[in-house]
Amino acid sequence: MQKDTKYFELYRSLQNRIIKGEFMLGTLLPSETELKQAYHVTQPTIRHALELLVNDRLIKKHQGKGSIVLPRPVGVGIISFEGRSVTSQNDDLEIQTKIICDPTKVSWPANPPFIPTEKELQLDVYQLERIRTLNNEDVFFEKLWIPNVQLDGFCTLNFNNNSLYEILASLYNITIKSSEQKIWAKAADERISTLLNIELGSPIVRMERRLETNIPNINIYSSLWANTENYLLYCIS
Amino acid sequence: MQKDTKYFELYRSLQNRIIKGEFMLGTLLPSETELKQAYHVTQPTIRHALELLVNDRLIKKHQGKGSIVLPRPVGVGIISFEGRSVTSQNDDLEIQTKIICDPTKVSWPANPPFIPTEKELQLDVYQLERIRTLNNEDVFFEKLWIPNVQLDGFCTLNFNNNSLYEILASLYNITIKSSEQKIWAKAADERISTLLNIELGSPIVRMERRLETNIPNINIYSSLWANTENYLLYCIS
DNA sequence: ATATACAACTTATTATAACAAGTTAGATGC
DNA sequence: GCATCTAACTTGTTATAATAAGTTGTATAT
C-alpha cells in the first residue's frame, strides 16, 4: 500500500539503521537538513518518516536539539516475569525456552478468541508451541500464531533460548505496537498440570492475546497458560 | 506547550465535537476541504489535527472516502468485561459499582507493588474501594489509589454506577496513556470469597496495576481481585 | 571567572501548490 | 436491464517557502 512511497522507504531505512545499531543509543540522529541532502527529499517527507519512528518509540524529538535515539523499546504487550518474593532479583533468573512444536504452516483455527483480519485470512499462518522455564521451573505454556508475511526461512530458525520478539524485530522488522488481552483464572486441568508439572487444580492464569504489529492489519495471536505460584506475569502497554 | 497552535485548537475542537456526539458514529466527518473553509486554515493544518484524532482512535481515514467517526474508544489499560460464552452480548450486561469505602485521603502504603514517583510522594492520595457487579453477580473487588492533583470535590462525588475513568476524563481531564500490570492467579482466601461471594479456594485473578496518566509523573494505582468464573477481563493497550 | 548576548544551529508551524490515487454515483452505451 | 465508463468527489504524497521557537556553544562584557 504505502511501501513504494518515499517517506516509507526513508522510515524503513532509518528503522533498519537504528535497530542494526548504526546510531549509538542516546546520540542524535542526523538533522533534518542532513537527511534531506542525504536522501534527496524535502522536509515534509523527512518529518513524516521521523514521525513514524517516534510512534515506534525508536526516537524522541527535541525542538532545537534533534532526534535522540532511544534504547530498543520493551515491546508493548510482551510478557516478562518477576519473582514473587521482594528479595529475588530478576537478574538471577535463568530463562529458557523449550519449543514443544516447531513452527509449522497451519490453517486458521475454527473458533478463535479474536477474529482474524481479512488480510490475515489470505495468508498462511505459522503455529508454534513453547514452554518457558525460569530457574528450571516450567512457568508457562504458550501457543502462538504468526501470519506468514514474507517470513523467509522462519521455520528453519532456532528459537530455543532466543526471544521470539527479538528475532521478529531484528530479522523481519516486525514490532509489537499494542495488544488486546482476555484474562481469566482457571484450575489446572490434566494436560496443563502435566505440561507445567504442577498439581491438578492449582490456579493458573489463562490469557488470549492479540498483539498488533507494525504491519497494518497483521497481528500475532497468543494463547497462554501460566503457573504463577512462584513467578508473576509482568506486562507493559 | 502546544496549546496555542492552530492544529491543536482544531484537534481539541473536533475531539470535543466528536465526544459530545455532534457527529454520528460511523458517519463521515466533514471533508478536509470543508474543514479548511470552516476553520480558515490550510490542508497541512487540517491533516495534522486529523492525525491526532486517528491516534486517539476517534476517527479512521479512508482514502477517497473520508474520515469515519469511530465509537468512543475503550481507554488503554482500563479493564472491561466480557461474557465467557460466545453467545452472550456485552450489551446485555448490567454493570453496577458498589463503593465499599468512600474516597479518603490516606498516606502512601508501606510496601507498594510499584514505587511511587517523587512527585506523587509529595501529594496526598485518595484511596477508594469498590466492587463491580455484572448482572447482580459480584465480579471484582478493586482498591484504587489516586494522587490528589487538584481533584477539587473528588470526595463528594457519587461514584456508584459511574465509570471512574469517565469522571476523571470529563471533570478533571485525566486520561490513561499506558499501563504496567503484574498478574497472577490465586486461590480465593476467606476475605475475598466472602466479598465476591464465591467458594473458598476457587481460582481468582490478582492484578497490581500502575496506570500512567496524561499528567507527567502521576499514576493511578490499582489492586484487584477478580472472579472470572463467568466473565473474563478484557484489557487493551 | 562569571554572567550575558548573540549567532548558528536545531525542530515546529503554517501556507501554497500540483499531482496521485481511491471511491462513488450518475451518465452512457449496449 | 445491465455493465462500463467517466466526472467529481475524497484523502495521500511531495515539493517549496517563510517564519517561529527551542538549544547550544562561543564571543563579549563585566
Task: Give a written overview of the molecule.
- With 237 residues, the first copy, chain A, is an alpha+beta fold.
- Chain A folds into two domains: 6-69, Arc Repressor Mutant, subunit A; 79-235, Chorismate lyase (3-Layer(aba) Sandwich), CATH 3.40.1410.10.
- Chain A has six helices and ten strands.
- Chain A has helices spanning 6-19, 32-39, 43-55, 118-121, 164-172, 190-195; strands spanning 59-62, 66-69, 79-83, 95-106, 125-134, 137-147, 176-187, 203-213, 219-226, 231-236.
- In chain A, a hairpin with a 5-residue loop joins β8 and β9.
- Chain A is elongated.
- The model of chain A has no long low-confidence stretch (mean pLDDT 81).
- At the A-B interface, β7, β8 and β10 of A face β7, β8 and β10 of B.
- β7 of chain A pairs antiparallel with β10 of chain B.
- The first copy, chain A, binds a DNA duplex (30 and 30 nucleotides) through α3.
